[in-house]
Amino acid sequence: QVQLVESGGGLVQPGGSLRLSCAASGFTLDYYAIGWFRQAPGKEREGVACISSNDGSTYYADSIISGDNAKNTVYLQLNSLKPEDPAVYYCAASRVRCSATPERYDYWGQGTQVTVSS
Question: Does residue 118 have a pLDDT over 90?
């Protein structure tokens, strides 16, 4: 059973940093593109970054994405967070390749909330 579980979200002060994790099970990262998306209240889901064996790292917003195949986990480093950055962050897996289009992903995690406030 394919499953993606995000963690690492929480409350951070403006200018702070967070590292989000996406733990995959039921499949191997080598054969999928893993994308991070965010969705703020009342807004559409938008791509943040993606990583795959074919595409390397692709960025749609300021962040750092990395993967650990041994742990079957992908990370998203968020730095210099701003008050307008709060959102639910999701990771997703695509059998094809990296894309900023949510509809091109096959599996999704449940999301982790990032809140930026002093």
Answer: no
